Hints:
- The structure holds 2 protein chains of 2 kinds.
- Helices cover 38% and strands 25% of the residues of chain A.
- Chain A is of the alpha/beta class.
- The relative contact order of chain A is 0.17.
- Chain B is mainly α.
- Chain B has a single domain (8-218), classed as MetI-like (MetI-like fold, Orthogonal Bundle), CATH 1.10.3720.10.
- Chain B is 82% helix and 0% strand.
- In chain B, helix 2 runs antiparallel to helix 3 (51-66).
- Classes of the chains: A alpha/beta, B mainly alpha.
- Chains A and B meet through helix 2, strand 6 and helix 3 of A and helix 6 and helix 7 of B.
Amino acid sequence: MIEFSHVSKWYGTNQVLKECSLTIGKGEVVVICGPSGSGKSTLIRCINGLEPFQKGDVRVEGVSVAARGTNLGRLRTRIGMVFQAFELFPHMSVLRNIMLPQMKILGRGQTEAEAKATQLLARMGLSLHGAKYPAQLSGGQQQRVAIARALAMDPQAILFDEPTSALDPEMITEVLDVMVALAQEGMTMAVVTHEMGFASKVADRIVFMDAGVILEDTPKDTFFTAPRTERAQQFLSKILQH
Amino acid sequence: MFGNFDTQVLIKNHALLLNGMLISLELTAIAAVFGMVIGCVLAFMRLSRLLVVAWIATAYVNLLRSVPLILVIFWFYMLVPKVVGHPTGAFTSVMIAFVLFEAAYYCEIVRAGIAGIRRGQAQAGLALGFRPTQVMRYVILPQAIRTMVPVLLSQVIVMFQDTSLVYIVGVRDFLTAAEVVADTNNRPLELYTTVAVVFLAICLTASLLVARLRPRTAR
């Protein structure tokens, strides 16, 4: 469903992605991990065209992200995205955050959008918070609203860019629970995270990156028990120490 | 010193003074409205990805912000009639000078307001599928306006004080009217004290109102 072929990206002379190739099939959950600065976020931002790249191609459902004629708006609507800093719109209520994109982008009516938003908030356990503004919610609650906002567009896949990195430890679980449920329902997911517990529970594959290169792309069991590269072994020993 | 403060001279000439105040206020209002319109256009030009467009706006803003207002007033006083081809009167030239001068300042306030919104907000909007113009309209501007409005209004208050500079080209604003009355009646103390008190009262009240606006609008 999502295909990278030999994607390279430079910031000036600094190459941040090197010949990255990767395929994410429908219903697959792929966790992308690696040390900071390894290009994980940049990689998944290429999928919905938030990051331009200079070489190679990314195709989403067969449509090239970089091609001139591509309707990027349409493509982005089919791919949800959840950010590290939540990025809810602070000047709108929670309900409005989930309704506005449905109405302005998908052309849904007020009633339909509100019904969808209400239903998703209930699913996130946030039914009582629809009228509040994002600033009145905890980080974990805000991130669940952000997930609801993405889901409201009925996406074919969701990209998660370090969704729990900005959260206090006690809030990480409530967000991961929602993500695990989504994964189990068969949502196609690309998740940049250091949460190896989440990875071992629901990931189909683990992609390990370092310095802009995809070093490993393996089923999760192989990754945890027998990582091929030394770099991945070091990374795992650091991250799993505790 | 204030023992023989003559209030009669104020009462007798109140029509002239009031008329001067109306001219000051009119100039402020016109310059604020049209200055903001042009300022917004300049701000969007500066944020444009078309480098030529951005460069033109930047050059304009830097030029106008580098010269003293009093010079701009003088300059337009001489220039405007030449450009239009016939005498225009001091008020018209001063009006144009203020609109174009203030636009440069409003541009910077608007631009800073827009640039101050975190990049992630625009990215979230784009990622949902909004078009760039929709991101501006639904996501960026509503937030930016909340931070801009108090700053823009403060700039209007500063400009209101600056309107007194038009005396150099003979526009009969509040200060000039007071000067005329002071000279003809030989009562400078009464008149200039009154001008100071009136400016103080108006600007202080306006500042307090803007300050009250701040916590509700600026986040």
